[in-house]
Amino acid sequence: MGKLFGTDGIRGIANIYPMTAEVAMKVGSAVASVLRNNTHSPKILIGKDTRLSGYMLEYAMTSGICAMGVDVFLVGPLPTPGIAFITRDMRADAGIVISASHNPYEYNGIKIFGSDGYKLPDETEEKLENIVFNFDKISFVSFDHIGRAKRIEDVQGRYIVFLKHTFPSELNLEGLKLVVDCAHGAAYKVAPLVFQELGATVIATGVQPNGRNINDHCGALFPEHMAELVKQNGADAGIAFDGDADRVIMADEKGNILDGDVLMAICAEQMIREDRLPKRTVVATVMSNLGLEKALNAMNACLVRTPVGDRYVVEEMKKNGYKLGGEQSGHIVFLDYNTTGDGILSALQVLSIMLKKDKPLSQLAKIVEKFPQKMVNVPFTGGKKFWEISGVREEIAKLENRLGKEGRLVIRPSGTEPLIRIMVEASREDLIEETIAAAVSFIEKHINTIT
């Protein structure tokens, strides 16, 4: 049987393995089983985004956890970073998020945080998988030791207070007009309130979830809608989140879209100015633009790259004491404040820099000069078997040699979808197109040797 956990928890189409109620129940029991061995009266939080399938998975996991004699606290829709914070704040033993982040509504997923608010390490996930795949050997508690489930109502307020405390106390957002696109997702209540309570005039969109419209041509995946609203309303900035609000994409007052690379550069420059960037280093993935690297070099700072996935970014940060890291897609991690990517928190940091420097976002964004970059996807169901294709590594090396120092090539199987992702970055558009065409041609020609 294959692995359950990918690069960001378990993910798939709802009601199709592994995203079934049965698997969710077993995972819940597995988490509770591991915790029960380490503490006398453990408790587990469960939060979710706004997908229709969230109800099914939430109750299935609750059933599995209670059957192991562990109590459950249900917090309802809340951003993934909010679950990480509340897990620590309530001294819970684990926090479970039912969300497929940026994927369409038919997908769902399960992410698990430990008591410290960090995502589980690989060895713990392997232990959970082993319990799920050998579920007939699990021991349930007796009828008089079954756990309880309780829905708690004050978590949104607690998370809002936490977020406001990450914003400089001497500043406020009075006089700023902001477009806030919540992607009909987990931030639809929390995000507008945070910015409003700090004094901003908020034009909220993507705040009417119906279970099926999460990420549907809105939010961080489709920031053009947010950017257009900025121009229409004469707003000072636009802020767009994905379905679970662990990533953010912004727009300046002119409607120009700013991704995670630009936002990290803006924050890094300010953190260096305030002597808050250890080793003058930012951590990002192989997907981040060369423009970010050059911008950091101009600040006498450096970029450390990791494989794709915010968990790898966080692992590198923890290991070497770095405080700022993230992904081009908008996951940005400020380890001084939270243990995972937090879209609302990241937007607050950028807005505070606008105020401190008294400059519009368009001026701050000039810090990065982007290299042309193009990404394409090729359907592939074999996952990591991609690397078994005959000659694939040699072909990649050949294409990289063709790019030389003028660009970069990244080819990798997606950890969350049945795709091969190809990214090419170069100083010339024609070089990008030639490289992508050659890569796609090779993959399509040889893909059937595996699938």
Characterise this structure.
By secondary structure, the protein is of the alpha/beta class. The chain folds into three domains: 10-153, Alpha-D-Glucose-1,6-Bisphosphate, subunit A, domain 3 (Alpha-D-Glucose-1,6-Bisphosphate, Chain A, domain 3), CATH 3.40.120.10; 158-367, Alpha-D-Glucose-1,6-Bisphosphate, subunit A, domain 3 (Alpha-D-Glucose-1,6-Bisphosphate, Chain A, domain 3), CATH 3.40.120; 373-449, TATA-Binding Protein (2-Layer Sandwich), CATH 3.30.310. 36% of the residues lie in helices and 20% in strands. The chain has helices at residues 21-36, 54-66, 80-89, 122-133, 155-165, 190-197, 224-233, 260-273, 290-298, 310-320, 343-357, 361-364, 392-403, 429-446, and strands spanning 10-13, 43-48, 71-77, 94-98, 107-114, 149-151, 177-181, 201-205, 237-241, 248-251, 257-258, 281-285, 302-306, 324-326, 332-334, 373-379, 407-413, 419-426. The strands form four sheets. It has a six-stranded mixed sheet, with helices on both faces. Strands 8-7-9-10-11 form a five-stranded mixed sheet, sandwiched between helices. A four-stranded mixed sheet has the order 13-12-14-15, sandwiched between helices. β2 (43-48), α2 and β3 (71-77) form a beta-alpha-beta unit. It is globular. The two termini are 17 Å apart. The mean pLDDT is 94.
